[in-house]
Write a structure and sequence with these properties.
89 residues, mainly alpha
């Protein structure tokens, strides 16, 4: 199973994307964290593992722009710092 399978199985996560197969892993993670439920998040983590998911999250929030709401960003910074020992600031 790939992370794009999550979007295929749950089209409401990226309803505006014409070709979900072309989404990057970072984009799929962003859609899952912003619009998915806890089961969607856990499915992503099971596919990529907690450390890789944390690395992808850090990569997306490190850029000049990201699409996470402040509450989502804050929650997952704390989550990955605790569960993946990510040391995100």
């Amino acid at each position: 199973m790939t992370v794009n399978t999550i979007i295929k199985n749950r089209p409401y996560l990226a309803w505006y994307v014409k070709d979900p197969d072309r989404l990057s892993e970072e984009s799929v993670l962003e859609h899952v964290l912003n619009y998915g439920n806890w089961d969607d998040v856990q499915t992503f983590i099971k596919i990529k593992d907690i450390d890789e998911t944390s690395r992808l999250f850090v990569k997306t929030i490190s850029g000049a722009r990201n699409n996470y709401s402040p509450s989502i960003k804050h929650y997952f910074i704390r989550y990955f710092n605790y569960h993946a020992n990510a040391n995100i600031k």
